[in-house]
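RECORD TYPE: inverse folding
INPUT: structure tokens
STRUCTURE:
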């Protein structure tokens, strides 16, 4: 388990370094390679429409770099991709320990984004949270989707222990930023 944690911590550290380099390049005025369409792909999970409050809220309050990271996880992580195609936790139950540490780290980041970051941003900026959360993500109501992610969270925490898991969640939180 220590070896798995070390690998996961290294993967998350590499991702943090990439994000920091990207932010530094943006600060210096280097043109980003972020394709706006790619940054929006993750919103298709939220039944993207011009009237969908959650979709519009995320697009207006979450930085493009954060959306790009989440979109990358959606496009490259087989577990997250499978969730978006309708599979549930039960399909993966008991197998998460066999996945590469990078993919487990991405699952943690995905959980942090939907369950912690988006919820926190809603609390900070949305005067009508109840209406905003009345949307579906991957065909599930938002609150049910967060519950489904909680099942992954419990298994990963059981594998790593609560202290290590919390450290990894705290590291994953670094990836997400709101528009100032």
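DESIGNED SEQUENCE:
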């Amino acid at each position: 388990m220590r070896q798995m944690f070390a690998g996961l911590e290294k993967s998350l550290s590499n991702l943090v370094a990439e994000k920091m380099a990207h932010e530094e390049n943006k600060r210096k005025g280097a043109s980003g390679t972020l394709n706006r369409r790619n940054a929006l792909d993750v919103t298709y999970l939220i039944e993207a429409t011009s009237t969908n409050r959650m979709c519009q809220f995320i697009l207006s309050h979450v930085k493009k770099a954060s959306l790009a990271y989440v979109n990358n996880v959606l496009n490259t992580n087989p577990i997250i991709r499978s969730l978006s195609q309708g599979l549930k936790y039960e399909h993966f139950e008991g197998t998460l320990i066999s996945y590469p540490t990078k993919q487990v780290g991405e699952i943690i980041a995905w959980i942090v984004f939907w369950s912690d970051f988006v919820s926190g941003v809603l609390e900070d900026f949305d005067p009508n949270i109840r209406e905003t959360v009345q949307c579906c993500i991957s065909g599930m109501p938002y609150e049910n989707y967060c519950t489904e992610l909680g099942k992954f969270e419990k298994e990963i925490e059981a594998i790593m222990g609560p202290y290590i898991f919390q450290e990894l969640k705290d590291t994953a939180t670094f990836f997400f930023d709101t528009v100032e």
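NOTES: The chain has ten helices and two strands.
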